[in-house]
Records
---
Amino acid sequence: MDLHSLIQPTVEAAKEAGTFIRQEREHFHAGKVEHKGFNDLVSYVDKEAEKIIVKALKLIFPEAGFITEEQTVEQVDTPWKWIVDPLDGTTNFVHGVPSYAVSIGLAKDGVVMLGVVYEVGRDECFTAYRGGGAYCNGKPIQVSEADELSKSLIATGFPYHLGDRLEVHFDLLKDLVLSSHGLRRIGSAAVDLCYVACGRVEAYFEYNLQSYDIAAGTLVLEEAGGQVSDFRGGSNFLFGGEVFGSNGKVHGVVLDKLKGLAAKK
Ligand code: IPD
Ligand code: CA
Ligand code: CA
């Protein structure tokens, strides 16, 4: 499989959906929102964007199956799979807060091989394929050089279902606020990971995530020289629900703090 040759058409698919999302935002209002669950918002924009992406991806690589958030296409089990979040950051989109993105990953046997994250509001497109480095709008990107937590900015997210980890999570946030440059809740897991990849923040963690939130972003980060793990330092992040990505240099120090937040086995 020539992954390099898949990048440009995948970028075009992401941008086609991004253009649709941008146009719809201009006349979007709260009455168009549906609820999938507590605080889990969706609208016709997510679903139509997904249809645009699926139609394009089927032409690019017809043998590949799909894992997609809105499930507008049959989710068949094949070795190669597109892993798609048509609109990551729906809550931001609904409220008109700028950070939201189209996220498209391509995995083989559960290993992400290609990733494209298109941050619609900034017109920034992050791309990577395994072994090929990471790029933003065609320029190579790298993680930051910061090697101390006290010089680091940390991103996180709050899952829709906080469950019984709320207290531990909030204690950890207090600890990080006091020991770093501060915390950011950007509102799109895909964007969070790409911001670590291009050196804007040093680390990002979140739990209760799905593979479509992070498939593309984790590969972009790895290819930018970063490190990605679960909350115990293992590699079960894509389907394990817990993701921690960093510039590598602060991975150990943050991981020590994160272990208490790992799901009880
Ligand atoms: C959400 C975003 C958000 C994260 C949530 C995700 P959605 O995805 O990535 O940053 O905190 O856990 O579900 O619902 O906007 O596609
Ligand atoms: Ca998402
Ligand atoms: Ca989504």
---
Amino acid sequence: MLKIFCALVIALGLAGNSFAQDLNFNAESYEVKEINNIAFRAYENICYVSRPLEPEYQVMSIYIPAEYFQDGGTVNNYSAANAPIFMPNGVGGYMPGRIAAPGLGRDGKANAALNALARGYVVAAPAIRGRTLKHGKAPALIVDYKAAVRYLRYIKRLNLLPAGDTEKIISNGTSAGGALSALLGATGNAAEYKKYLDEIGAADERDDIFAAMAYCPITDLDHADMAYEWIFNGINDYHQAKMLRPMNGGGNNRPENAPLDTKAAALMSDVQIAASNKLKAMYPDYLNSLNLKDAQGNFLTLNANGEGSFKEFIKNIYIAAAQGALDADKSALNNIKCFGVDGDRVVSMDLKAYAEWATRLKAAPAFDALDNSSGENNEFGTESINAQHFTAFAYDNSLVDAGIADEAIIKLLNPLNFIGHDGVNTAKHWRIRHGVLDRDTVIAVPAVLALKLLNNNCAVDFKSPWGYGHAGDYDLNELFDWIDSICK
Ligand code: DHB
């Protein structure tokens, strides 16, 4: 009887395991490629989890400069042993993200991954699940990015990774991908993700990283509606079409899958205008609850009217950007009314005039739409529910019969919930960019992220580049100079 029981247990155990695949890396399975005279080995489409739920997306490619396969080969003073690992994600619009492979960008120039190889970095580029897949809703995207980091550490420990220092992993992404990069950087080893990592058979390794680069991160989604109205309240026309932009479409450099930005304006409804007024009034309490301080240790706050030191801090970021533009070109601010200039100095800024100049992209609420129709509503759906609210405000004021996402899952998508917490290893080095003309989210959102990191002893390089809207990877020389400066 006992024998039969044991045989049954073993058989069941084997059957259970047979659903899982091993975490493999075959160092002999690569192609040699060359783009723009940059030669590299490409190990492509490697599954980074042992129980993939979306096998087409839970794969990663690893690209290694060819020099590291010659004895003692170096590039940019890096070697196979100490080359940093650049880890870009191709996520946009919270959609599934494809592998961000080395190649030429829309502008015909070397993209970030190809630049990284030229500079001697190893590139590890995972595809990542997104909101339109059956198993792709929150928190799938961050679980996959973490699993890819764990996979790299796993094959490194087995001495299979041909080159690259897994203690020097730098993430990169734009917009939803920037939010994802920030989330990876903020949440290293946080226990809250474990059950999701176990579900897909992620390697039992650490998932903290060295540095994070976030271009225009669409983050802090559960508070961004208030921040948006703090800046755009009073402007009642907006410039977004109801449809998503077509893949690869558009004549500007907005990321794929970003909402379609229109020239023609639509007018917000009375309900949306009322929502704007309420959300604006709610922002100061939220902002003050964060207890943020500037680099000199002064508290940054807002009074009930939305005025105060935090507003001055935000204005000074734009003033610094405008000063740079004026220094480069004396006529740069000629037709721009929101900056006050005295001689060759930018001395003041009017945030209301800025909002008129930049124009509102999204109706209120910008992210958690009252009709439950935004991409973010879809991101917070479940396997069986297409879309849900994720703020109490939109849920309470919903125009449709829609539920609200699980509080624990909303928490898993916000980096602010993890920075400085016990048992979490937040990346030490950060570079965050939000273009002066970006209105997919407002600058207060990445500014709060930057301040929270600064207040928790991270090194943060945060700027608003002049002349840029919602875009990323536009300053690759500076990006890689920054990475060199923190790695060397
Ligand atoms: C992106 C842009 C948005 O405006 C948004 O709400 C979500 C994502 C993007 O470009 O990824």
---
Amino acid sequence: MTHVLIATTKPFATEAKNNMISIIEQAGFTPHLLESYTSQDDLKKEIANVDAVIIRSDIIDKEIIDAAQNLKIIVRAGAGYDNVDIDAAREKNIVVMNTPGQNANAVAELVFGLLVFFIRGQFTGLAGSELKGKNIGIQAFGNIGKIVAKIAQGFGMKVYAFDPYVSHEKIENEGVVSLETVEELYETCQYVSLHIPATPKTKESINYALLSRMPKNAVLINTARKEVIHEDGVLRLMKERTDFSYISDIAPSQKDAFEADYAGRFFFTPKKLGAQTAEANTNAGIAAANQIIDYITNENTTFQVNK
Ligand code: 3PG
């Protein structure tokens, strides 16, 4: 019997969960559910004897991997897998996958939800500004970046992107100006939306030197990871330039410093909610369940990230 654990500190929408459970059962596997757990010990106990696990931003470190006796596959229902120790998994021949693109639309829509809310005075009734005719820069033109571009075009914005891993041709085919350097992106765009993963290379890469190039009334929108931000650099710029603002889906580590001195120039969601829609949960959850079944039955490793 193959046991599949769904372990989420931030539970899936009910509809998504029900779909996942029925897909797992129809494959003849046994589903197990661990939701809203508060200690890694609970996860350790539940993961000990299962063959597969589906997670979201849940932390799967070496300790958890070592506690898993039968684990063959971990699927991160989502895009970023910086929460999984993929090397520790590889050492134990455990396949790690993500479900790229499945929650991209939810994140892209949130970019504009946050941005419109913010530039319209956080809906207080103050006179705000409009997006039409303004420049938006998309840093990383992956699944999310591409949708952000489309929505921005709908708003009548001029759209620029920087992504060294995507060809100029692919970007320009979407009606987006593809820039040569990241510096150009920040110099050109009043709004910059981040869609880079958190890796050792990108960690704290969004720094003072880059941000200080942004034009007047600049807004940085971060629906990626707080780890990519050099927070001291952002705070320095907040102090030096009263026209600079920062909005983010998840508060920075130094949230208190923003609250103390920069009221009205930042907005942080209380909990990471970019992918928290019924649709995104359903898409990513179903993809995760199907990928597990396809790996266990057919050894399909298409979405493996730790080859
Ligand atoms: C992702 O990387 O897919 C998003 O950040 C969503 O994360 P979540 O599943 O924790 O909401």
---
Amino acid sequence: MSEFQDKVALVTGAGRGIGRAIALAFAAQGARVAANDLTPIHLDQTIAAAASTPGEARAFLADVSKKMEVQAMVEAVRDAFGRIDVLVNNAGVEPHASLLKMDEWDWDRTLAVNLKGPFLSMQSVGRVMAEQGGGVMVNIASIAGRAHGLKDRSAYVASKMGLIALTREAARELAAYNIRVNAVCPGRIETEMTADLRQDEAMVARWLREVPLGRLGQPQEVASLVLFLCSSRAGYITGQAYNVDGGRVMC
Ligand code: NAP
């Protein structure tokens, strides 16, 4: 039997892309998945896909950047499932704009979703996990938050670099409650987030030249690393950030 059988995993931004792959990977292992997203539009497909797994998924709508909504979501998940064993902070946005042209709104929204969101979720879920004796958290950062950086994405890069730092500090503080916290840093993965950029053949050719494995990644390849970090096989790992990027960044 899988060690995730009947475990409760809250995954944010689970309506599509990497979040959906993570939610379905947990459900495939028999987990009870609390699948969050902003709207039901895509989330309904995640819930439907989970129906053919040994686990289950239920929808919990919330904007992860809003404290009241996150608190209400965490309460609702606890009411529905009784506990929360795993938190995956995956929801994210990536606006493209040069520093000189970026709107204040884009800056604020990016930091609110990508950095404040994980803080709010880790705080609310951390209280639940501390009460129940432990748990595990994974924050989906990006190789853009490492030395790599990314042109015309200053808000995104700042948010992901901040998320890696927040992961370390959360791991340091929450270890006392038997809660492990790690970050996963994807490279370029084939999802909606990269759909526009993937139309640009020259851009894709450049990306592929930079990736030793010579291809883009799949959402399931990010999910595999997340499940490993949430498993007991990773029981002595906390405060770390791991790249899943075909070798694009080696640090
Ligand atoms: P995606 O396809 O754009 O999916 C992101 C999901 O998050 C969407 O379902 C979106 O909902 C949801 N979301 C956005 N804002 C939210 C909010 N405030 N509250 C709740 N849900 C929200 O993105 P992805 O490619 O799967 O990326 C997932 C994560 O991986 C992100 O954190 C991203 O930064 C990171 N990442 C991705 C790549 C890549 O190449 N794809 C690389 C590095 C890191 P809506 O559909 O309603 O907007």
